[in-house]
Amino acid sequence: MAQNTTMEEFEALLNESFEMDTPNEGSVVKGKVIAVEAGQAIIDVGYKMEGRVDLKEFANPGEAPEIAVGDEVEVYLRAAENARGEAVISREMARREEAWDRLEKAYADDQRVEGAIFGRVKGGFTVDLGGAVAFLPGSQVDVRPVRDAGPLMGLKQPFQILKMDRRRGNIVVSRRAILEESRAEQRAEVIANLTEGQAVEGVVKNITEYGAFVDLGGVDGLLHVTDMAWRRVNHPSEILSIGETVKVQVIKINKDTHRISLGMKQLQEDPWDLVAAKYPLSSVHAGRVTNITDYGAFVELEPGVEGLVHVSEMSWTKKNVHPGKIVSTSQEVDVMVLEIDQAKRRVSLGLKQTMRNPWEVFSETHPEGTVVEGEVKNITEFGLFVGLPGDIDGMVHLSDLSWDERGEDAIQNYRKGDMVQAVVSEVDIEKERISLSIKNVGGDKFAEAVGGVKRGDIITVNVTAIEEGGVEVEYEGMKSFIRRSDLSRERADQRPERFNVGDKVDVRVTNVDSRSRRLGLSIKAREIAEEKEAVEQYGSSVSGASLGDILGAALKGDN
């Protein structure tokens, strides 16, 4: 009877155990630590199930595990039983599930979450958000690039969740968003206490090519390079260094963007207030070249006052060269004040005006008619350019190259670099032009030779060549040609061969052409003129005297 009772009790207990609700695998259950041994915690999760969890799963990144016998913890039930009959549980997975639930709620409510940076990965860092691991991009660590993240490692601090995907297990957080938000509040408070025109002190936090950022006590202002000093500043590092305390003036505050523009030079006296009085027009001053551009050079007259020497005002003679070939940076030069624009704060300067006009000097030292010598600098289709004293050029036109040759032919006799002599024909100072003549060196031989000869004169010439069409003759070194038809009034005597080279012949001048530099000569015209004169003196057309009688009388009279 007792045996039957025991069997019934056992059966009832067995049925009771089958009817008990056992936790589902993949769920979070509560358990109690019943022992700690061999680096593991043995946890009773109820339902007559026990499992083991490594102690490291109870520790936060960078911290020692805090677990003791009797502690109640939540664990994740991965499997109800393994090969050893133990439950397979995980504290880390339980924390992750708990964390994801908490983080999803915070993400939905746009709330901050607390975490700690515990590792570095490509492109950023890993953050423990109380069981869930998130990615912190490098650009989201701080408002400015962070060179050393060591002080931030393991430090619990707030983060903003930017993006999360539970299915993929991805969470992206930002520390920068938190800083910017708190910084915006701080900026608003500081800006509320600032007014435009106010002088404040600040610390130089960063230096760039275009200026420096100055911390005004929680808010940064930009001190642009052009507002650092009245003089030209090539780089802010010339006058500022990081960490330096400077006094600045608030120039402008943008209430919408919270941007603050600062200035240092505004606290100093403006040198432009005295420019007009100190630098009157046409006055000459010493200055220093500070910058060279394609269009000219900037010259500093005093700190804060610069003027531009335009390329056209740099040299009398060097017209198409870069300003850097005339002056160099830091060179001391004398300049003349040409124009002052007080409104635009501009001074126009001249460099060449401090030197005498070389065309003026040449005109004084080389009046028209002076013979000069120079090197052929250039040859063009219309003439030669010859280098002259004062680093200027004179031009010899084609028509001034030779008396005897066409200009196009004469120019072929010259080469670049040849030394030539020429006569100064004209100097135009305003147009900066000098006209030269090579053919006039030694005077005009044609004019000298025929200076007293006029049309109708009888002159004696020497025969220099016999040609089929006539004879070539020479008078005082000047060549002329007598055509066959002009050799005699008698057709039978119009034969060139009846003359010999070296013969002296009397001819009548029929034309004096200064342009072609030729004398028109004719024996025939001389004979006709002599006959006419004889008729007038020794007979008339109505006297009945024959031509032979008249010529005989004329010849007798001559004798």
Would you mind describing this structure in some detail?
The chain is α+β, with helices and mostly antiparallel strands. The protein has helices at residues 2-19, 91-108, 176-192, 275-278, 358-365, 407-410, 445-449, 523-538, 547-558; strands at residues 27-37, 40-46, 49-54, 72-79, 88-90, 112-121, 124-128, 133-137, 156-165, 170-174, 199-207, 211-215, 220-224, 245-254, 259-263, 284-293, 296-302, 305-310, 332-341, 346-350, 371-380, 383-388, 392-397, 419-428, 433-437, 458-467, 470-475, 478-483, 504-513, 518-522. It has six domains: 24-109, OB fold (Dihydrolipoamide Acetyltransferase, E2P) (Beta Barrel); 110-180, OB fold (Dihydrolipoamide Acetyltransferase, E2P) (Beta Barrel), CATH 2.40.50; 194-267, OB fold (Dihydrolipoamide Acetyltransferase, E2P); 271-350, Nucleic acid-binding proteins (OB fold (Dihydrolipoamide Acetyltransferase, E2P)), CATH 2.40.50.140; 358-437, Nucleic acid-binding proteins (OB fold (Dihydrolipoamide Acetyltransferase, E2P), Beta Barrel); 445-537, Beta Barrel (OB fold (Dihydrolipoamide Acetyltransferase, E2P)). The chain is built from nine helices and 30 strands. It has a five-stranded antiparallel beta sheet with strand order 3-2-1-4-5.
